[in-house]
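Deliverable D5.2: sample structural annotation.
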Amino acid sequence: QKLTLGQVQAAIVDPASSRDAANRFGQQPSARSVVRFYGLNLGAEDFWDPRVREAALVSIDRPSVLEELPMAGFTADGVAGATTAGFRYGACDTACLYNPSESRSLLRDVGRAPTLTVVYATEDQAGVAREISSSLGRGGFRTEVVEVAPAQLPGMIADGSAEVFAFGWAAPAGSMDAVVPPLFASGSSLNVTRLVSVEVDDLLAEAAVTADDNARWDLLAQAHQAALAQWVLIPVAVAHNGLVQSPDIAPLAIRADGSLDPTSIG
């Protein structure tokens, strides 16, 4: 609506709004599918014990979380959409099973129930953040929900103060090669959960020198599943959204998290 009223030059919108904009302004380019997830910061001391990470993940009622997503989407199975070349179903496996009683049992074994800081960086993520917090509460955790400016988030991940944080990924290319290595390789600047795994790194290294697409994608699928088995993130949703823009501006850049880069608007 703001686009049609001339109040904004561009927006990322749901498919229905994208079709309406195409009728009004002509065909518009589409953004890639965006996978929304919440990372567990392995740099935060609360998550050094894998039992705490497991407890956090099995606390999450993902269908309820999905209802709070502002855009049309469906439940994610990891950090890639099903249309991504090389995608394999089942990566999330037991990491996505909802079992709050198991979470409380794990926390009893640990002997403590940490207070987790749930961080989000844009207003449209508030509902999801609150539902994540509610789920964690049912699993036995205490939580604090914090909204921060987008520019603050990298520093908070680095210092461990953002323990559970909203993130998204729109792969720059349409295959698993553009998803798994950047998000899970040790030392990658985009490895926001700060996972360090010899098993994952070995699979990624083998994939990098494998020319056959199917063989390489099988290795990447194994690395994807091995990473998720470390209880490092909460897959929330795959959102199929479109980029709608006024016809009088130059093509726009899409950030890796699926949002618009305002600096690309001339």
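Annotation notes: DSSP finds nine helices and eight strands in the chain. Residues 14 and 215 are 35 Å apart (CA to CA).
The annotation will be released with the project's public dataset once the embargo ends.
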